[in-house]
Amino acid sequence: MNRLIDIIRSVLISPEMLCLVLPIGIWTYWPGPFQFVTTQIYADFKWGVGAALVPTGFFASSYNLGTDLLSPHGARKVLLEWPDYWMLKSRVVMAVIFCGVAVFVVFFALYLIAESKASLGAALLLSGWLSAFAALCSVGLARWKIRELLGE
User: Fold this and answer.
1) 93-108 pLDDT, tens per residue?
2) Backbone phi, psi, residue 74, to 5°
3) Residue 150 phi, psi dihedral angles, 5° rounding
4) Which of 123, 128, 130 is nearest to 36 (CA)?
5) How far apart are CA 93 and CA 78, in angstroms?
6) Taking a C-beta distance cutoff of 8 angstroms, is the pair 65, 136 a contact?
């Protein structure tokens, strides 16, 4: 039961979720800049395709860092005996899932911009970027801390 509560808490109360929701809240009260971005992407859709690749790169980097962090080789074998290893593993998995969701959100945002020229698309685009970046930073900081603790 504690594991389930911890996983739910790590999803709902996380920097990734804040970064996913914050641009939509800003869009609600101040849609002007998002409308400008939407018209710019709509005018030249190559920018949108490039924008979609940003969270895709974050996803790949997050997966790579997470795999390196959780691989039990060398001094990291002691991590497998650590009682809270499951928390580290669940955080890394959640970060990779957040990056995957961010990729989906960005492609949906581009669809909205291309089909209906909705400024919500620009807000979702920013949401995807920020959420994927926050997830990558979480995994990177965890990797730093583990290296520091293990003296690597």
Assistant:
1) 999 999 999 999 999 9
2) 65, -135
3) -85, -5
4) 123
5) 20
6) yes
Q: Is the pTM of this model over 0.85?
A: yes
Query: What Å distances lie between residue 38 and 5, 86, 107, CA to CA?
Result: 39, 42, 14
Q: How far is Cα 138 from Cα 120, in angstroms, rounded to an integer?
A: 27
Return the amino acid letter for 29.
Answer: Y
Q: Which residues of 2-30 are buried (b: 16+ CB within 10 A; e: fewer)?
A: eeeeebeebeeebebeebbeebeeebeee
The model's pLDDT over 41-72, given as tens digits with 9 standing for 90+, comes to: 888 888 888 888 999 999 999 999 999 888 87
- CA-to-CA distance for 138 and 41, rounded, in angstroms? 30
